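Tokens as discussed.
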């Protein structure tokens, strides 16, 4: 039986950094609000990113394959 610890809770101040950078194929700087599960940005294309609560890495394709690394707190 799953414990309450298995259920993702709200993001804390330290859960993810305010900013993350990655390069593939362009250098893009992303600002992710604390309590936002989704963020959109344009540079140079419009890309929608979903970052799970407990995931330190995420990948997405739009229009290129980009790998974003979000360092742990």
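Sequence:
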């Amino acid at each position: 039986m799953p414990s309450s610890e298995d259920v993702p809770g709200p993001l804390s101040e330290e859960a993810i950094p305010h900013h993350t950078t990655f390069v593939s194929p362009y250098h893009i700087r992303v600002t992710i609000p604390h309590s936002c599960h989704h963020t959109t940005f344009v540079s140079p294309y419009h890309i929608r990113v979903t970052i799970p609560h407990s995931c330190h890495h995420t990948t997405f394709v739009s229009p290129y394959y980009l790998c974003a690394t979000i360092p742990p707190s």
